[in-house]
Known about the structure:
There is one protein chain. It is built from 3 helices and 6 strands; from the N terminus they run βββααβαββ. It has a 6-stranded mixed β-sheet, covered by helices on one side. β1 and β2 form a beta hairpin. The longest helix has 10 residues. The protein is globular and about 35 Å long.
Amino acid sequence: MASDDKPRRVEVKDGDQTVAAAEVTTADQAAGTVRTSLLPSSGHSPPGSRASLVDAVMDLPEVQASSRLEATLPLGDAESLERLRERTEDTVSRPAGSTTLVDADIPPAESS
Protein backbone atom coordinates (compact mmCIF):
# COMPACT_ATOMS: atom_id res chain seq x y z
CA MET A 1 0.00 0.00 0.00
CA ALA A 2 1.45 3.38 -0.96
CA SER A 3 1.81 6.05 1.68
CA ASP A 4 -0.08 9.31 1.26
CA ASP A 5 2.06 11.08 3.86
CA LYS A 6 3.17 14.59 2.95
CA PRO A 7 6.60 15.70 4.23
CA ARG A 8 7.25 19.36 5.01
CA ARG A 9 10.40 21.19 6.12
CA VAL A 10 10.25 23.94 8.75
CA GLU A 11 13.26 26.18 9.44
CA VAL A 12 14.24 28.74 12.06
CA LYS A 13 16.78 31.28 10.85
CA ASP A 14 19.15 33.72 12.52
CA GLY A 15 19.67 36.27 9.77
CA ASP A 16 20.42 34.26 6.64
CA GLN A 17 21.62 31.19 8.56
CA THR A 18 19.36 28.23 9.37
CA VAL A 19 19.89 27.45 13.07
CA ALA A 20 17.30 24.68 13.42
CA ALA A 21 15.06 22.69 11.10
CA ALA A 22 12.43 20.01 11.28
CA GLU A 23 11.00 17.47 8.88
CA VAL A 24 7.26 17.09 9.51
CA THR A 25 5.12 14.31 8.06
CA THR A 26 1.36 14.19 8.51
CA ALA A 27 -1.11 11.66 7.23
CA ASP A 28 -3.89 12.80 4.88
CA GLN A 29 -6.60 11.82 7.35
CA ALA A 30 -7.52 14.36 9.99
CA ALA A 31 -6.86 13.56 13.65
CA GLY A 32 -4.01 11.21 12.71
CA THR A 33 -0.44 11.04 13.94
CA VAL A 34 2.16 13.60 12.95
CA ARG A 35 5.83 12.58 12.88
CA THR A 36 8.66 15.06 13.15
CA SER A 37 12.43 15.03 13.39
CA LEU A 38 13.89 18.12 15.03
CA LEU A 39 17.31 18.86 13.56
CA PRO A 40 19.28 21.65 15.25
CA SER A 41 22.23 22.80 13.14
CA SER A 42 25.71 21.93 14.28
CA GLY A 43 27.53 24.61 16.17
CA HIS A 44 26.11 27.39 18.30
CA SER A 45 22.36 28.02 18.27
CA PRO A 46 20.98 31.26 19.69
CA PRO A 47 19.04 30.76 22.95
CA GLY A 48 15.39 30.07 22.24
CA SER A 49 15.89 28.90 18.66
CA ARG A 50 15.06 25.28 19.46
CA ALA A 51 11.93 26.27 21.37
CA SER A 52 10.99 28.48 18.41
CA LEU A 53 11.35 25.46 16.13
CA VAL A 54 9.00 23.42 18.30
CA ASP A 55 6.50 26.30 18.26
CA ALA A 56 6.74 26.58 14.46
CA VAL A 57 6.04 22.86 14.09
CA MET A 58 3.22 22.80 16.65
CA ASP A 59 1.55 25.84 15.05
CA LEU A 60 1.28 24.24 11.60
CA PRO A 61 -2.42 23.80 10.70
CA GLU A 62 -1.89 20.15 9.79
CA VAL A 63 -0.24 19.49 13.16
CA GLN A 64 -3.08 21.26 15.00
CA ALA A 65 -5.52 19.03 13.12
CA SER A 66 -3.70 15.89 14.32
CA SER A 67 -4.24 14.10 17.61
CA ARG A 68 -0.85 12.42 18.22
CA LEU A 69 2.80 13.45 17.90
CA GLU A 70 5.84 11.23 17.44
CA ALA A 71 9.06 13.27 17.57
CA THR A 72 12.75 12.52 17.31
CA LEU A 73 15.30 14.96 18.68
CA PRO A 74 18.97 14.85 19.65
CA LEU A 75 19.68 13.28 23.04
CA GLY A 76 20.30 16.08 25.54
CA ASP A 77 18.26 18.72 23.68
CA ALA A 78 16.56 19.92 26.85
CA GLU A 79 15.18 23.11 25.29
CA SER A 80 13.20 21.26 22.59
CA LEU A 81 12.06 18.56 24.98
CA GLU A 82 10.82 21.08 27.55
CA ARG A 83 8.88 23.04 24.89
CA LEU A 84 7.33 19.80 23.57
CA ARG A 85 6.20 19.00 27.11
CA GLU A 86 4.66 22.48 27.40
CA ARG A 87 2.82 22.19 24.06
CA THR A 88 1.58 18.58 24.35
CA GLU A 89 -0.23 16.32 26.83
CA ASP A 90 0.62 12.88 28.23
CA THR A 91 4.16 13.29 26.94
CA VAL A 92 6.47 10.29 27.21
CA SER A 93 10.14 10.47 26.24
CA ARG A 94 12.82 7.80 26.09
CA PRO A 95 16.41 7.65 24.89
CA ALA A 96 17.25 5.64 21.77
CA GLY A 97 20.93 5.74 20.91
CA SER A 98 21.92 9.35 20.23
CA THR A 99 18.30 10.50 20.04
CA THR A 100 15.28 11.00 22.25
CA LEU A 101 11.92 9.63 21.08
CA VAL A 102 8.82 11.50 22.19
CA ASP A 103 5.21 10.29 22.03
CA ALA A 104 2.48 12.73 23.03
CA ASP A 105 -1.11 13.83 22.55
CA ILE A 106 -1.74 17.11 20.75
CA PRO A 107 -4.28 19.17 22.68
CA PRO A 108 -7.21 20.62 20.74
CA ALA A 109 -6.60 24.13 19.42
CA GLU A 110 -7.89 26.82 21.73
CA SER A 111 -10.74 28.94 20.41
CA SER A 112 -10.18 32.67 20.50
